[in-house]
Model the fold of this input.
Amino acid sequence: MNDRCDRIASWLEGLDRRWIFLVLAVVVVAALLSGVSSPDRATSVVQPIYDRIENLPDGAPILLSLDYSPSSAPELEPMAEALTQHALLTGHPICYMSLYPTGNNMISRVEERIITREFPQAVPARDWVTLGFQVGGEMLINSLRDSLTARYPTDVTGRPLRDVPALRGVRGLGDFGLIVSLSAGQPGLKEWILYAGDVLDVPLAGGCTGVGAPQFFPYYPLQILGLMSALKGAAEYEAALARGHPEFTAANQPATRGMGPQSAAHLVIVAFILLGNAGLLLRFLARRRSP
Amino acid sequence: MSGVKQRVPQIILTVVALLLIASAFVARPEGGSAPLGPRLLAIADQEFATWFSILAVFAFLMGGLNLVATHLAKIRERGPDRFYSLVTLVSFLVVLVIGTAKLGGPPGLQGDVTAPGSWLTAVFDAVLSPLHATLYSLLAFYIASASYRAFRARSLESSLLLGSALVVLLGRIPAGRHLTAWIPEPLAFLRVEELSLWILRVPNTAGQRALMIGIALGVIALAVRMIAGVEKDPRSGGDGS
Done:
């Protein structure tokens, strides 16, 4: 009996990681192919972002800073898409910018997937404007506090900002109804908190990757009104949007669909963690029983 | 001469740092009737931000030149990794030419380099984006393998880590929510998604804040030493003390 426990424990301890890779791949691919997903519900950390947009004064613009590159897009892009859908559904102009060099392309993707396909009636410069990427990170934010035109005399198409109806009444960052930074690292949400949210007292919310979430929780709820963390945060926002706007179906949305494979992957990891500890327990029992 | 070389950068550093610190603590004036001091500080703050961005652009240039020099040297030395250096150099130069010439996109200084149809967008969509996605996806496999080996209940501390990991892992998926949905409303705080949120909001926040405050104090101490000129500063070539 002791020998058998010891053998199983040794096998579990020395388990080749390629078996873990294989099981994870098979389960995730199966979940992807089956299309299984489970609609989520917004937690108290995500709901305030939705509520803020719902309760903005008519026509108040929203600044959306897409501070990520393609590597973080699977987690952060669904947030950008859901926020764009929500803003356009509620009639709030969106101003896109980025602190990342790849930001312009990330913005283009959201424009193409959401605005062009789902809101063909949306008019550039009236319903949304793209300022794009500029170098500088926190110093760029600092420059925009008093005047957007200090660093963005025109939008990416070359249109002067004074001719952009979406930004009528907006001089600096403090004139936005809400600023949201979807952040994959530095520069990102932390810089927005330090150089815009805290200084101007402008409502600020954020979205971040799963690994980045723990560093942003200390800022919630006093310095950021809400935080969407990883795909789960995006799925929660989609759920809130689906509940408030019946014309929006969460099940078709990328984050809600992505939660199926993510759930499967998490369950596989939990199963392997339990298996590893079962091996440890077996080893412990074998040692206790041995004379 | 060496004294001047040390003192001038130190004076620039001290003056700029003091101005920036002062501008952070003085409210920006509204309108033109504000006192001269706050107005000057606001202008300095704005100007320094612009200069910072100009310097950051030059940093891109320096980075590019450094990349070319490093990889050219590797190719010249005919080292075992010269092929990778060649790929890096060719990729860098091709993307640089495509982006600078704004091939396929609207021309001119104001032309959007990432406009739909531009070659740079094609490179982004067909090369950069899939490469990033592929590399990042691999993380899931390594995390799974590392979790299997790391999360073992060998001691009280590791058991706490294991318990937190399981709760957060389950709390981040809808399946976890269904797992504890049977818990009655008065005890809802015991549901896995609530426990997961509690771990992130309470113990995590406490630990993170302790770290942040500690780091901030260290940064303040370092800044004071640099402003006072007692920190060894590689830019001035001085020894400090």
Observations:
- Chain B has a mean pLDDT of 87.
- The two ends of chain B are 20 Å apart (CA to CA).
